Please model this.
Amino acid sequence: MNTRYIILLLLLTSSIKGFSITEDWGKTGHRVTGEIADSYLTEKAKRNIAELLKGQGLAFVSIYADEIKSDDRYRVYSPWHYVNFSFDKKYGEDTPSERGDLIQGIQKCIEVLKSDTAPAEDKEFYLKMLVHFVGDLHQPLHVGRGEDKGGNDIQVRWFNDGSNLHRVWDTEMIDYYKMSYTELANNADELSLSEVEAIEKGDVLDWVYESQSLAKKVYTSANVGEKLGYKYMYNNFPTVRSQLQKGGIRLAKILNEIFG
Ligand code: ADE
Ligand code: ZN
Ligand code: ZN
Model:
């Protein structure tokens, strides 16, 4: 098989739902988190970040980590998009994946960004990756069960189409809502200062556990083969919106600590 044929095959299969290359929150979700984070940055952080990203915004760079998935040179970063560990254990009780995971990935990004010696080029790369991974961390099923690949193996129907539980949370609900990322970001819940502070509280690991406890509920929210639609949206889209907003606020917290 020559490369062109493989690419054609990938393109064809990726248009069939259920066989697609996963995109995590999907473009819109990641951009919402980036856009919300932007509005919580200090002026100093904004300036430093704009310099590193050469003027590109957080929403714009938020899907870079998905874009590079099709480039073999970046394959080592694929396991950084999620973390799976037993629901009744703490992270680290079982040996974390040697290939890396979402937690190790975020730690590495922060480490490079805080370094006095890392070249600007590396900082730019790891900043783009960080924006994406903090988004992924807030998709509950990215802290799901390894056995079913975070719900990827749980086939369901989304209205009249074949899908899977992971995909419903990554993209189906957000796409169904039919709002742009700016509209979703601009219409995020209005929060009081104390509500924002409560969201900012804790660290990456605390937020991982929060996502994991949501994941437990997500697993009980649907049965294999079930047809999900209006009612599922009604029950679960508020959680999606809230997770995207928390992701944005917490990303800004991390960035303000590094660049602010
Ligand atoms: N592959 C394996 N586990 C996964 C998860 N939790 N999310 C996305 N992809 C995965
Ligand atoms: Zn995903
Ligand atoms: Zn991802």
Q: What stands out?
A: Confidence is low (pLDDT under 50) at residues 12-18. The chain has twelve helices and three strands.
